[in-house]
Write a structure and sequence with these properties.
Elements lengths: L4 H14 L5 H12 L4 H6 L7 H15 L4 H5 L1 E4 L2 E4 L12 H18 L3 E5 L5 H9 L4 E6 L2 H13 L6 E5 L10 E6 L6 H4 L4 H4 L15 H10 L3 E10 L5 H9 L3 E8 L5 E8 L1
Parallel strand pairs: 3-4, 3-6, 4-5, 6-7
Antiparallel strand pairs: 1-2, 7-9, 8-9
Length: about 290
Amino acid sequence: MSDTRESLLAEAKTRFFEAHIGEAALDARVLVAGLLDLSATDLMVRGDAVVSPDDAARVRAAIERRAAHEPVYRILGKREFYGLTLTMSAATLEPRPDTEMIVDGLVPYARKIFAEKGECRIIDLGTGTGAICLGILSAVEGATGVGTDISAQALETARANADLNGIGSRFETVVSDWFGAVDGRFDIIVSNPPYIRSDVVLSLAPEVRDHDPEIALDGGEDGLDAYRAIAAKALDHLNPGGVVGVEIGYDQLMTVGGVFEACGFVVIDRIRDLGGNDRAIIFRAG
């Protein structure tokens, strides 16, 4: 009996329920549709379409990977973020929908700065896939950006994503430990740094703990190491009238705010995620 789209989808759902995958039905649809290069509509409306033996074997191999708690979009190798298609590598975090909130929060500042100055220079510290910087660049035509990361492999991924989305001419990369190898000043400094306490990392869900790079998760004993490093040098690299935006953990509004305030910044905005939790803070020089 031949495999069909519908039968493979049902197989994936059953396997994911057995493996206690939280969103089994959704993950099954995304995975099967993505692997077969189908829209969600095509998958459902033409469920009786026969799938080739090679494609069916590929889908079944991917089903087992997801059942072992490898994230769906890691398996697919890419995901949508802020209207962009972003590839991932072992050296990058998976860009997540909640991070789109900091892009939304910073775009109005970038547009205002560009309207006033005719330019807007952005630096994304620890850029990973390039998600935040590329998201802002896609929304503000003419703005330029620099992505830094301690990982050369991550920067290769970010560069590929910039080219894939037609933003390559406005984006460059620098291997740097925060501001260590950075020259010049910027209108927007942004980062989604590691902010999870070291003693919490091992208790994270396997989708995160086993597949996102630890260096992008572990924020030190109190989760604030990266914020201290960024705040200590940010004023030296911020243009007059510029802003700094950082993503934070849901319970870090006061502590991260205190780190930056001690370095001469004041809070001008706070951003909540889709669940209503604090997700990012925006500062200006005090």
